[in-house]
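User: Please predict the structure of the protein below. I'd like the answer in structure-token form so I can feed it into my own downstream comparison script.

Assistant: Understood. Taking the following sequence of 103 residues as input:
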Amino acid sequence: MNWQERIRSSPDVCHGRVCIAGTRIPVAVILDNLADCVTEKDILASYPTITYDDIRAAIRHAAELASGRVILPLFNQERLIGKLWIVDDGRVRIRPDSDNDAG
């Protein structure tokens, strides 16, 4: 399963919060439910637009964030202002939008 295909962040959906792709269900809601010992079966019943693989993707996303291997795009209310990159030496860089590039 490629969890990146199931997790999205867009400034137009839930104010840029990370959500299950194609829904307005924040990943944090899924993780909060799991942390509160809500079963996957009950989560699926409460949110019928998601699948078991979406729950697994939310967990994988959280694991990647905890490991420091994933950096999310940064958004303001108007548009994407840049993306953070992790370079091989572990430093974080900001790549500006192409329309902000000088020259």
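That's the full token string. The longest helix spans residues 52-67.
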